[in-house]
Structure formats: C-alpha cells, structure tokens
Amino acid sequence: MKAPTVPNTSFVDKEFGGVDQLLEYCKALPKIELHAHLNGSISPESLRQLAEKRLAGTVGEAEAATGALSVLEALEWKDTFDLKDFFPMFKHIYALTNNMAWLVFIVHGVIKDFEDDGVRYLELRSTPRDDASTGLTKELYVQTVLQAISTSPATKISTRLILTIDRRHSPEVAMQIVDLAIRFRDQGVVGVDLAGDPYAADFDCKHALLKAKAAGLKVTIHLGEIENREAESASMLEVRPDRLGHATFLSEQLRAHVYEERIAVEMCMTSNVLCRTVSSYEEHHIKEALELDHPSILCTDDKSIFASPLSCEYALAASTFSMTKQQLFDLSKKSIDAIFANSEEKTRLRGVWDTWAP
Questions:
Q1: Residues in domain Adenosine deaminase (predicted)?
Q2: What DSSP letter does each residue of 31-74 carry, written as one string?
Q3: Is 3 a domain residue?
Q4: Which end of the chain is more exposed for a tag (fewer CB within 10 A), N or C?
C-alpha cells in the first residue's frame, strides 16, 4: 500500500521546483516525531524478516509468523481502514515481538528508519506487555526497550519513551504502568499515554493519569477519535493533559477549551484519512489549527501500517495547504516546544534547527 498524494502542482512547482524537490526538502528538513507507536512503525522489511526467521521455529512461533505475513499481504493492497478492523491486526505483530531479542531488533530498526527520514527527536510509545511463553514481564519489557534505545546505532536522533495504557486495561494495570513510568523516568521514560481501540472500552483510568501528573510525568491522551464521545472527552480533559492525540471529534465548546489552554495536538493526517475519521486532507482539522497558530505537531501514528513516513506528512501539508519552505521549517521548529524532554534538550534541538535553517 502506498500513501495517497494530494497534488497542488502549480504551488509545488513554484515553491519547490516540483514534487521530487518537495519530497527532498521534507526529508532533509529536521523534524520532531511525537506520536509514533512502536509496533506500528516496524518497517515491512523488518516485519517480514522476523516472520521468516520464526517460521522455522516452534509451532507457536510459526503460527505467529503466518499471522504477521497475512498482515503484510493485506497492507499491500489496503488503501482504507475501519477502526474496528484496524486494531486486531496488532495481535499478529505483538506475537512476533514477545521476547527481548526481537524487541531490541525492532527498536533499533524503527529508530534508524526515523533518523534516515530526517527525524532528530523521537518519542516512541508502547504498551508494556507480559508473555508467559517467553518470560516477558511489563517491567522487563520497559527495561528492554530502554536498553535498545540506549544502544541504538543511530547517532543523529535523540529518542525517549512514552508508556501507553490501553483502554482495555483495568484501573489496577493502569496504575502498574504509571508506577513503571515513575520508576524509569530517569532512564528515558518521559510520559504516559492513553490509547487503544476507542470502541473496546470506556475511559476508566483517570486516577492513574492523575497520579502520573502528580508525580511530574507528562501525559498525552488519544482523544475524540470517534463521534459521540463528548462526555468522555470532557472527562479526559479534566486530567489537564500536556498533549492530545488526534482530537478529531470535539464539540465547539471542547475545541475552544483546547485552543484556549493551548494544549498541543499531535496531528496524524494520513492515519485519519485512511481510517476515514476525516473525509479528506483538505478537510483535516489541522487546517483550522494552523490558521489559528495553535500548537500542532505533524506525526505519523503508525508509519509502516499507513506507508507514510514523517517527510510525507510534511509534503502532504505543504501541498494541501500551500505551505512554503519557511512555513514548514517554522512548523517543525515550533514542535520542539511540545516535547516531553527537559529544557536543556529543547535548547539543544533549537540549536540544531538554527544551524539547518533555510
């Protein structure tokens, strides 16, 4: 599957010299990625490599590999998704990444892919998991991902970790994940996320998120992904999250609150259009946010599932909304303000952008 394009030929030719030059500029542009799910960012090549290695393993491994290969086959032709069908795909990917060796392999690959695409600061997010068949525990999962981040061969990118609470988790499990985030905050964990299938469960982890906030951790929440969840969204906003993921379906009152509080929004254009929560790129809610100069960060969500690296998201924004080179650069640099790392890291990154400035 290839990500769709939104041609605006006359503007692109005038500002960039053509589509190829636009893509080259967007890839070279230093970028911030703040909404990247680890297991949705594994390249098809890495996923296939994992699957093929495990096809020769035990019966359980072979079954897992077959499931992952079926996901790859589906992605080769799929150009739209339904959220109800989207999340079940991940069980096949999780089955391939259920031990320490494979976790290190995929983390190294994902970080290198982002670096090669011009990303200079990355916040990966992932849900700590248990797997009795391999001895994996939530704690060991976090330790392994952090070890992989610290040993990544990529040298031009700085990476942090956000621990994700799944909507289907019990309040007790949500608290366990927050406790892990607090425990490992000095080793690269910078925040907590709430994600998962919005159809699968109601919002039931407010106390855990409030504990994270009280401990000084940053919080980001997948909010307003589907329609008719106004009460839930209002309850989520009571946590006073530092960032929001998607924020697609909000009442005028709630959106006004988000704008007034200047809560940064992680915008995933291709993800929203392919999942049909937004009708088109032209109608994406980032348009209004950009017009109002609201803090907005272009992100990928699941770059390999949707076949759209971050450079393509910038190219789509440029073509769709007639954004100049300077506007793209400014949008990218402003994203530094929303990262969960400390002020020293923000200052360092601004220096990187100033050195590159067009």
A1: 30-350
A2: EEEEEEEGGGSS-HHHHHHHHHHHHTS-HHHHHHHHHHHHHHHH
A3: no
A4: C
Candidates 15, 33, 61, 225; catalytic one: 225
How many Å apart are CA 302 and CA 308, to the nearest integer? 8
Residue 299 is assigned to a structural domain of this protein: yes
C-alpha span between 145 and 104 (Å, rounded): 7
As a whole number of angstroms, the distance between CA 277 and CA 198 comes to: 12
Report yes or no: 51 and 65 within 8 Å, Cβ to Cβ. yes
* Structural contact between residues 178 and 212, judged by C-beta atoms closer than 8 angstroms: yes
Neighbour tally for 240: CB within 10 Å: 12
- pLDDT of 155-204, one tens digit each? 999 999 999 999 999 999 999 999 999 999 999 999 999 999 999 888 99
Domain limits for position 71: 9-356
The span from the CA of 63 to the CA of 30, in Å, is 40
- The H or E element spanning position 264 is strand 264-267
What's 271's domain CATH number?
Answer: 3.20.20.140
Question: Taking the complete model, does pTM exceed 0.70, yes or no?
Answer: yes
Q: Quick count: other Cβ atoms within 10 Å of Cβ 186?
A: 7
> Helix axis angle, 44-55 relative to 59-75, nearest 10°?
150
Separation between Cα atoms, residue 131 and residue 247, nearest integer Å: 32
How many domains does the chain divide into? 1
End-to-end distance of the chain based on CA atoms, in angstroms? Answer: 33
Q: Are 72 and 48 in contact (CB under 8 A)?
A: yes
Active site residue 225: yes
Q: Strand, helix or coil at 17?
A: coil
Asked if residue 138 belongs to a domain, the reply is yes
pLDDT tens string 316-358: 999 999 999 999 999 999 999 999 999 999 999 999 999 998 8
Note whether residue 146 is domain-resident.
yes
- Per DSSP, what are the bridge partners of residue 305? none
Residue 312 token pair: 């393509």
